[in-house]
Amino acid sequence: MTFGDLKTDKGVKELNSFLEDKSYISGYSPSQADIDAVNQLAKSPAANFPHVLRWYNHIKSFSADELKQYGATGASPLKTAATTTAPAKEEDDDDVDLFASDRRRC
């Protein structure tokens, strides 16, 4: 994706329009494209580009190690652990009578 020169207001304006309904430049998590675009910006975006400013602050909130992981694989650094527990046994609920008080009144 190209937005023009991100060191100019015109390029930042194009990026702002693109990010109006998106969180990232490509996909649903930060990627190398986000890192590259942040590095192309001359400075922190002005407040008159609210979508770029939101995105910029979000990308800048990641640590250097997290950004390396995103840049290397495009994957989220928050990996979920593999499930190692066995599924729970199906329990016998026959002894639980939630409406026992209703039967006693009859």
From TrEMBL:
GO CC, any one term: cytosol
Region feature (Disordered): 73-106
Nuclear-export cofactor Arc1-like N-terminal domain sequence ranges: 7-60
One Gene Ontology MF term: guanyl-nucleotide exchange factor activity
A Pfam family hit: Arc1p_N_like
Domain of life according to the entry: Eukaryota
Gene3D superfamilies per the UniProt record, alphabetical: 1.20.1050.130
Protein name: Nuclear-export cofactor Arc1-like N-terminal domain-containing protein
